[in-house]
Amino acid sequence: xxxxxxxxxxxxxxxxxxxLVLVLIIxxxxxxxxxxxxxxxxxxVYVNSIFNIRLIFNHGAxxxxxxxxxxxxxxxxxxxxxxxxxGIFIWLLTINVRKRPLFGFxxxxxxxxxxxxxxxxxxxxxxxxxxxxxxEQYHWPVFNVADIxxxxxxxxxILDNIKNPQKKEKxxxxxxxxxxxxxxxxx
Length: 187
Prior knowledge:
This protein is 54% helix and 13% strand. The chain is built from 5 helices and 4 strands. The relative contact order is 0.16.
């Protein structure tokens, strides 16, 4: 029996989705490099009445959570992101993408986004955020391509779970009824 983690010739496993993960990482890192080249922190450009490109260095997590926590969050988020990314990578390589392609795509998008932000945090100590949507003076938290990938991946995961509901575990009452019936059948 082939081990799906070591056999890249098995077309059913998530190995075939790794190029998608790589493309998403490249798109994320390229966009951040371009914006980082064009603008300094806080700088940007007005695009239209609801969108700006504005470079922000996010030292925290999503929506700048813990950004002013004093520095301990960088190694913590690097460790946490690495463990989660490794787990998703292994999970991706062990699933049968022919049976659940949407699930495979969802993991690929989440993994690509997670690795994109992990690269920033590891290399620079912060994440480059630059997509700034707003309505008048009310701004949505600034985000990046990696965040879009993660959000799309979570959306696909939800859609996959709606399309492919998992079998619910039998209730305790059903289990005891089945056990009683099995004992009665043996007599």
